Amino acid sequence: MPFPLLPIIVIGLGVGAFRQAGKRAKTEGVLTPQRQQVFEQAMQGKRDPAELRDLARAFRAQGLPGPAELLEKRAKLRELSPELTLQRRAAFKKAMTSQDPAAVNHMADLFEREGALGAAAKLRQYAAGLPKPSDHVTHVSPPQVAGEEDDIGAVTRMKRVKTQPKTPLKPSVSAMHRVQPTSPQDTPQDAPQDAPQDTSQSAPQAASQAAPQDAPQDAPSDDAESSDSDSQE
Amino acid sequence: MIPEYQPAPPISLEETPEVAPDEPEYSPPTIFPLSTSHVARGNVNSATVCIGPTGCKVLTASNRIRTDIGADQIAANQHFALRDMASNGLQAKAAEALVKRARAGDQNSMAIIARVRDNARAGITRAIVTEKLMRDYISKHPASDFGAEINVRRCDVDDCGAVMLANGTMSNEFVTRIARCFPSRPRALFLGGLRAWQDKHDSACEQLTSKLDDAMTSIVALGRTLGYAIALCTLRRPETPIAAFDSDVAWELGE
Hints:
Chain A has helices at about 5-25, 35-45, 50-60, 65-75, 80-95, 100-115, 115-130, 155-165, 195, 205-215, 225, 230; one strand at about 175-180. Chain A is mainly alpha-helical. Among the domains of chain A are: about 15-80, no CATH class; about 80-135, no CATH class. Chain A is elongated. By secondary structure, chain B is mostly helical. In chain B, strand 2 and strand 3 (about 55-65) form a beta hairpin. Strand 1 of chain A pairs antiparallel with strand 1 of chain B.
């Protein structure tokens, strides 16, 4: 008795096909999480232009011209003229020496538009690391025992600054560094039992004692702490 | 003169042997092996590498130059401030570790907490501060009713610290000096992090640090931060190929 079952099977298949079509219509033109994942993996990992172009075609067929265009641009990255690639490399290197986060982020946007997501990500990482200065000047009291940290260099530097006349600042980037003794034997003053003991006399109280001498009234004593509180955490 | 940067293979677990039973506990004194300051765009930026018994960290500060105070004075003030921050931060970490160990059932930690409480009642300043830090941590992180605390140890690169070090003064010589601060096993972790600073090594580093405590994890993180700083310095040299910094970026830019 197969005959009565045949219409039921046909109707079932029809309903299934209709549902599938409905699902396709729902996801057409939508960047679903799965598609996003495929797109990101291709933009970060795939280096074969043919594969990238195939994927771009598939995205375009699904009604996603934006990702398709980026994939095509990535496929073209290796086909650019040598002069242009040299210019791009120079621009990337220059941006990685910049001190302006806004300029570096702008450069990252430009690289992203050209399909170079890896370069854009590195530039954004660099821009995120550039300091965001506060408007106030840091003021923290000197150590309780004068000369205690002379071997580290900070007190010596403070003394030198106080005795020498101020020199005009150069507009260009300048660097000054101090290298401290590295072995634990060289720094007996920094023993661990000393560090917690200092906290009772450190920043807030001691800064309030030292502030009238060398700090303007509006300068908070724990400015550096606030500017780096997230890194401490 | 910055030496040539040599990219190395990712960190492997074989490089970090298990702790030998007779190896002494890692408890270095608090030292600051590298401090650097530089002036850029009208700001004084300072970074200090802090190595302590409860962990390592690159501390940073940035302030605008003012006409009434010289850049040198601001830099000196920043370094004092960073050292104070390091002391407070290390004590807070120690208090946090005590609470965590006590919650896990460590009798020694419970006894230490009781002693800190007694000393705080007796008016000892250091104990009062520690007790307050412990209370702060407990109020912010109340104990869960069921299960153990899940402590995810991350060893991400400190972008800000790395960029500050790279923009100041950074070289392999400084890295060697810092590496010499550590005994054998922490040094292996530090050098492993130094080689595995890139994003693609994140999973390998997390796998490694899941077996380590907080102090050791911070050593790996410090190594990764310094690795990124050295890579930035190397990239800025005109003759260095971008592939030495990142192979994916080099491919994208036609190298």
